[in-house]
């Protein structure tokens, strides 16, 4: 009997609570005409480690460009949001916080009164980050939060009366469909108030060949990152996705600025997720969309900010003008 709350999934109540939304998203995505899997489920322990490898790849310019910005312009960035009053520095999708640590060290040297709040959907990544910070920056006050961004921000707003400085780095903003970016920013601002600030990383439009190479590396690590999502579904729901029956494909549209990744079925096949009583039939060369990553012009960034009632304070770019970190104030 199907559960009313999750009508597409059988036996949903038999699953652990933390798996129920995952199950619903998987089944809903795979029953669409254009099949899709949410990229937010890439980041289990294995996926997080694979993404760390991606960030070290020669073709993956995004991390190097943003690291360059933080390394050489850290004092200007910090001066833009630092204040004498205590504040929370909230890092959405913190991961290993490699880039954020550059600013954290400078803030500690300034003896700034702040609390670092790393927020990530992956509990494994948060636990590893907390352990590393305890060794690297033992004097840093850390309050990690796991789970959905908005639920965690609501909790933080209830429990803290401090000013919020929100980091959303690595061009994670580009992982939303473009129309949803506007919705996300407006919703994010509901948890903020006058005096709060945002630092958002935007991957800028550039040579389309550079962009495509960043998402389809010759070493196959990005492909493995995508395949890991199928492996995770297999392990979580007793599935039989055969990874050898798929290939990774990535393409960039320079008009829309959208980089899209797919897993392509190379043959007719039937996949079963036993724990969900769910069967999926795939035709040869049918695609499952796994990720989008939008690239922006500075004019598009300004339009997004204006629609969310954000004021652009400062724009920081790397020497190649590949990437921008933009400081916004609320209201």
From TrEMBL:
Residues 22-328 form the Histidine-specific methyltransferase SAM-dependent domain. It holds the Pfam family Methyltransf_33. GO terms for molecular function: methyltransferase activity. The keyword Hydrolase does not apply. GO terms for biological process: methylation. This is L-histidine N(Alpha)-methyltransferase. Keywords: Methyltransferase, Transferase.
């Amino acid at each position: 009997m199907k559960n009313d709350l999750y009508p597409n999934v059988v036996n949903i109540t038999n699953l652990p609570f933390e798996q129920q939304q995952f199950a619903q998203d998987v089944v809903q995505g795979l029953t669409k005409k254009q099949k899709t899997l949410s990229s937010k489920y890439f980041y289990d322990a294995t996926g997080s480690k694979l993404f760390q490898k991606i960030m070290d790849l020669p073709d993956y310019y995004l991390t190097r460009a943003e690291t360059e910005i933080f390394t050489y312009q850290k004092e200007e960035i910090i001066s833009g949001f630092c204040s004498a009053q205590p504040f929370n520095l909230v890092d959405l999708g913190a991961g290993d916080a490699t880039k954020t640590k550059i600013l954290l060290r400078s803030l500690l040297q300034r003896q700034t009164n702040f609390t670092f709040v790393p927020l990530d959907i992956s509990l494994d990544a948060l636990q590893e980050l907390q352990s590393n910070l305890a060794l690297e920056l033992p004097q840093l006050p850390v309050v990690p939060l796991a789970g959905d961004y908005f639920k965690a921000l609501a909790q933080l707003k209830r429990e803290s009366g401090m000013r919020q400085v929100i980091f959303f780095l690595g061009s994670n903003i580009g992982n939303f469909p473009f129309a949803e970016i506007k919705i996300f920013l407006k919703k994010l601002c509901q948890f903020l108030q006058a005096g709060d600030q945002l630092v958002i990383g935007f991957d800028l439009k550039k040579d389309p060949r550079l962009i495509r190479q960043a998402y389809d590396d010759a070493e196959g690590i990005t492909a493995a990152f995508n395949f890991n999502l199928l492996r995770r579904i297999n392990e979580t729901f007793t599935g039989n996705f055969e990874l050898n029956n798929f290939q990774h494909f990535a393409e960039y549209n320079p008009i829309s600025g959208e980089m899209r990744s797919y897993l392509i079925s190379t043959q007719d096949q039937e996949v079963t997720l036993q724990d969900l009583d769910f069967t999926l039939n795939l035709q040869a060369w049918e695609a499952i969309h796994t990720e989008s990553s939008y690239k922006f012009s500075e004019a598009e960034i300004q339009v997004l900010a204006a629609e969310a009632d954000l004021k652009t304070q400062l724009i920081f770019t790397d020497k190649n003008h590949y990437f921008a970190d933009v400081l916004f104030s609320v209201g």
